[in-house]
Amino acid sequence: MKHPIDGIEAFIQIAELGSFNKAAEKLHVTQTGLTRRIQRLEAHVGLKLIDRTTRTVALTSIGREFLPEAQRMVDAVDRSFERLKTMSRFSTGDITIASVPSLMYGRLPRILRSYATRHPSNRVEILDRTSTLVIEAVRRRQAEFGLHVQPPNQPDLHNEVLVRDPFVVYCRNDHPLAGRPAIAWADLAGHDLITLGGSSGNRLLMEAQLSRSGIEVKTRFVVEYFSSAIGLASEGLGIAILVASLVENLRPDLAQIPLVDPIVDRPVSLIRRRGETLTPAAQALYNLIVRDLGPL
Question: Mind telling me which PANTHER family this protein's record contains (predicted)?
Fold first, then answer.
């Protein structure tokens, strides 16, 4: 049911000023317009709220009882509008995003630090998901937007490719391949390899592109998480095939070497629901990621 808020405001001003003329001036309306607002309000509630004669204006007993409630209603509306204005002006508010774990291990925390400095009152909840689950979290409105590494093939979602992240080798500094400027995929034959398994979008992309090139790579260790692969490589248990975005947190005992012939990379993309406007807080972070999550 639509409540006559303008009538409630008119009622409060008449009660406080004791005059239709003064209330009309304060609200910048004619006395006729003010009278119509009161008439609509009284018709809406089915009760007389103001007794008016040619000389006096007074609230009825019901009007006096309603006045504090009316003031609370208008105050609540004013606070709601002020809150929305503050959100718009300062991009305040809590947000939830989804991201593949590799970006959280590497480059995204630097961007989040910048966001936290600019918006210290905002809380950010991050859902660590595989690319498939990042997409589903956005689609199901569990997250306002997400960062994923799958090809853009979701027609109901807007996909913005930010950068292409190449696969590289991580190995101990004392490994025989550590001193090379680059390593061809074919040169990995005979070495113990560590790759990601399960539903990892990285594994699917790597295997598909290598298959098209006629190169078969066999692994000795298959893990679910980047941190596990890095840990195994650090112990000298093999060469970890991961992506270059981990470079910012590279351990000092490990070397990072580009993989070539062919260069295999993954798209790092932002995804959001098509045709929907982000909240100001989410839009501020989205813009920061677009600006800063660029080429390595």
Answer: HTH-TYPE TRANSCRIPTIONAL REGULATOR YBHD (PTHR30419), NITROGEN ASSIMILATION TRANSCRIPTIONAL ACTIVATOR-RELATED (PTHR30419:SF8)
Please return the burial class of 185, using the count of CB atoms within 10 Å of its CB with bins 0-12, 13-18 and 19+. Answer: buried
- Reported as a single tens digit per residue, the pLDDT across 11-63 is 999 999 999 999 999 999 999 999 999 999 999 989 899 998 877 889 999 99
| 122's tokens | 């905002």
The pTM (predicted TM-score) of the whole model is 0.66
Pair type for strands 193-196 and 239-243: parallel
Contact indicator for 296, 165 with CB cutoff of 8 Å? yes
Range 112-121 average pLDDT: 92
Going along the chain from its start, the domains and CATH numbers come out as 5-90 (1.10.10.10), 95-162+267-292 (3.40.190.10), 165-265 (3.40.190.290)
Closest CA to 132 of 145, 108, 148: 148
Confidence of residue 296 (pLDDT cuts 50, 70, 90): very low
CB 242 within 8 A of CB 167: yes
Nearest to 161 by CA among 268, 288, 275, 272: 268
Q: What CA–CA distance (Å, rounded) separates 221 from 202?
A: 15
- Is 215:185 a contact under the CB 8 Å cutoff? yes
Q: Phi, psi (5° rounding) for residue 168? A: -140, 170
CB 146 within 8 A of CB 137: yes
